[in-house]
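Now for our target.
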Amino acid sequence: MVSVSADGQFSVNHVVVSGRDVQSISRALTQATQNVNDPMVVISADAQASHQSVMMVMEAARRSGLNQLTFAAQAPTRD
């Protein structure tokens, strides 16, 4: 799972990615999926995360040869 925080921080499988660029995310994805058969990238972005941050994750997945992507969703909270 790739998490994107509101301030643009990326995490892959709960491990913070050291950089905030496509290459750093791609490297983290490649490392996280090297021993996984038929990996799927699940993107979980904070509602305040920028569209560009999500697009960077998608590009990093493409560069890593990961073509199965999905998005995690949360039901809205009721007040």
User: Anything to note?
Assistant: Helices lie at 22-33, 51-63.
